[in-house]
Amino acid sequence: MQPEPANRPALPRGVFVGRLRRRHALPFPGRILVDVGDSVVPGQIWCRGRLRSGVAVVDLPRLLQVQPADVPDLLAVEPGVTVEAETLLAGTPGRLRTSRHWLAPTRGTLTEVNARTGVAVFVREIRDAALYCRLGGVVVSADPDGIVVDGDGVALAGALGGGGRAYGPLRFVESGERPDSRADGAEPSILVTPDPLRAEWVRRALETRTVGIVAPSADAEMATGLGLAPTIAGLSPPDGSYGRPPQTIVLTAGVGAARMPHAVQDIFRAAEGEVGAVIGARRPGQSEILLPPTAAEGLAQVAADHLPVQLASGPGAGAEGVALGDAPDVGRMSSGIATQFMRVRLAEGGIATWPTPNLTTLA
Predict the structure, then answer these.
(1) How do strand 39-40 and strand 137-143 relate by DSSP bridges?
(2) How far is CA 231 from CA 202, 238, 249, 254, in A?
(3) In CATH, what number is assigned to the domain containing residue 352?
(4) Has this prediction a pTM greater than 0.85?
(5) Does 145 fall in a domain?
(6) Domain closes at, from 248, 273, 298
(7) First to last CA, the chain
(8) Each residue of 50-69: b (16+ CB within 10 Å) or e?
(9) Are residues 116 and 233 in the same domain?
């Protein structure tokens, strides 16, 4: 009889160290400031443009019941002029109740009127916007839709996030340290904590000049209150909820009470003061933290001899250590499936044998 094959999948990676490639998309019309072959650094502006909000598109010929060619003669303001709410933008002659008018819905600008169709665009706000490089390296591709940057760095996958993108120097807040303890005179930074998020810690962090927060986890109520997870149907949001993320926030382990693995803490300590990028996205798998190559020095000592790993599921989940190699015998998980096990030297001391499918690498 043939022996039952062992279930031995490859170890998933929680941290990637080495050559990275990231596409930087252009979500609005803008001018790209770099070209193929240019060197860029994290936080460098690669595009400038104008972001429009509160856009209203109005078919003036239909509203005023005129021909498109007659629309220019009925305009009350010139395109490009900023007006207050309720200002007359266009209208037909006659008394107010018998004529047809278009009034400004808010304070804003009549940006354009199409000469052929008579369709007009009103914009509540127009502001200058800039896009920043998430990764340092070389621009290997550039087109009207964005650029691609290739370079060395460290990428840490985020399990849960929100609040968009943040760039700035990293500051590691040790366990038990207040996030506002070094806020005086400090430039805006990304705060990193090895502990699960707590309401008081977040409140103090938001009172400092922080641009982003990285933490290992938060309980379900905290994640919902920060806008990182949707409110359960039929339940009201927790007291003190922000509704939406007040800052860019990324949880590396997700909902729960997990602490940050020591190997990952060493990565952030090695990158203290360096500029990093935090991408917080509600869509699963899209949140991540990008760090410069110097962050890899935090893993050098451990990874030189053995691979740092963490038990991702099962009894003792969250424990970490270094892999010593496969266990000599194939065992079985609680489900009965034949599975390869791995010997691990635990961070707190001792040797354990863990199922390989339950492990995630930290380097």
Answers:
(1) antiparallel
(2) 19, 9, 17, 16
(3) 2.30.30
(4) no
(5) no
(6) 298
(7) 39
(8) eebeeeeebebbebbebebe
(9) no
51 DSSP β-pair partners: 127
Q: Work out whether strand 39-40 and strand 88-91 pair parallel, antiparallel, or are unpaired.
A: unpaired
Same domain, 313 and 293: no
Looking at the structure, do residues 320 and 290 belong to the same domain, yes or no?
Answer: no
pLDDT tens per residue, the chain (363 residues)?
344 444 444 445 678 888 999 999 998 889 999 999 999 998 899 999 988 889 999 999 999 999 999 999 999 999 999 999 999 999 876 645 546 889 999 999 999 999 999 999 999 998 889 999 999 999 999 999 999 999 999 999 999 999 999 999 999 999 888 887 765 656 789 999 999 999 899 999 988 889 999 999 998 888 888 888 766 555 555 566 667 788 999 999 888 888 888 878 888 998 999 999 999 988 877 899 999 988 877 665 555 557 778 887 777 777 888 888 777 766 665 556 667 788 888 877 888 887 877 777 776
Helix (H, G, I), strand (E, B) or coil at 272: strand
Spatial CA neighbour of 309 closest among 6, 10, 14, 9: 14
Four-residue CA torsion sign, 178, 253, 206, 155: positive
Give the residue among 5, 6, 46, 51 at the shortest CA–CA distance from 27: 51
Looking at the structure of the chain, the number of domains it has is 3
Is residue 347 one of the residues assigned to a domain? yes
Say if residue 228 is in the same domain as residue 284. yes
Q: Is residue 6 part of a domain?
A: no
Q: Which residue range forms the structural domain that includes residue 78? A: 50-128
Residues 288 and 190 in one domain: yes
317 DSSP assignment: T
**Hey, what amino acid is at 307?**
L
